[in-house]
Amino acid sequence: MVQPPLPTPGQRVSGIAFPSQYVLPEQPGASAPADVHDAHRQTQFVLGADLRLFAEGMALQLRILNDSSHARYRTHAYAAVVGTWGRAYAALADACLLITRGSYASVPNLVRSVCELVAAEYQVKHEEMGEYVGWLLEHLRPDEEHKALDVGLGHYFAGTTLAADDQLRLVYRASSDLGRPNFGATLLEVAPESNNLRLAYTFGDASFHVAWAEIEFGWLLRLCERQLAVAVHMHDVLNITPETHAAYAAYAARVDELLGNPGRARIAEVESDGFKRWLIHNVRRQPSGAPKKVLL
């Protein structure tokens, strides 16, 4: 690739620190409520395959970063990609922790953010590197009026990529609708036992719910796969070996297989009376419960 012009003569990209390994969330502390302990225990037991596959995806991300840590990869394109990637990685780790703690209602907004960050990595690198360089050219300098360092917000939204990637778009739209204060989404997240005869809202509940755990881990696994797909196709920015590419392909196949299980809770887009709506399959609190469908 052609190195973009440097905003400041001699400006360099420093080495980027990253974790040496990814570790799944540990057991809650002794002071945690009983329902949080139970959510952690049941998640380990019921969704062990999800946890293991998620950990592998996070570890493969770190492997790519480690392989690409040599000084010769430290271009401005590398900085643009890895800066956003680091935010996505942290949000994925945080979302995993929340799921294992039974804090399902907090996850959709993190997931939506990851979708936007992954899309931004791809679109900046492949289509709009000039946007990043243009921001650098105008900022990171003193602002005399406010006696401050002018960083500049650098507005950016990768709407084209979110619209073009079918898998990313589905997760983005579902998590966006479930993360906003929509009435039905709120009821389903904090009052899942409600019906037309009784509203059963909770407050701060962390009880295990297998359907929410399956849906949200499904999002995390898909986003891990999408993040890796973006990374392994940046041969001119990252050190992507044939072995790494093969590892990604094997990982993607395993994600597809796990998420393709028909007995798993999942969200599908359907059309009803001319409107696009969400049909949630296999909704149940416990694995032994009778599955049902919910239309949002």
Summarize the helices and strands and which ones pair or pack.
Layout: H1 34-46, H2 48-67, H3 76-100, H4 107-126, H5 129-138, E1 141-143, E2 148-150, H6 159-164, H7 166-179, H8 183-190, H9 210-232, H10 242-259, E3 266-272, E4 275-283, E5 292-295
Total domain units: 1
Q: What is the terminal-to-terminal distance?
A: 46 Å
Q: What is the helix content?
A: 40-55%
What value does the Rg take, in angstroms? 21 Å
Derived structural class: mainly alpha
| Number of beta-strand segments | 5
> Low-confidence segments, ≥5 residues, pLDDT <50?
none
Number of helices: 10
In terms of DSSP E residues, the strand content is 5-15%
Shape: globular
Mean pLDDT: 92
Largest sheet at a glance? 3 strands, antiparallel
Provide the spatial order of strands within the biggest beta sheet.
3-4-5
| Pattern of helices and strands | HHHHHEEHHHHHEEE
Describe the structure.
It is a single chain. The mean pLDDT is 92. The protein has 296 residues and is mainly alpha-helical. The chain is 53% helix and 9% strand. It has one domain (34-263). The protein has helices spanning 34-46, 48-67, 76-100, 107-126, 129-138, 159-164, 166-179, 183-190, 210-232, 242-259; strands at 141-143, 148-150, 266-272, 275-283, 292-295. The strands form two sheets. It has a three-stranded antiparallel sheet.
In short:
The protein has 10 helices and 5 strands; from the N terminus they run H-H-H-H-H-E-E-H-H-H-H-H-E-E-E.
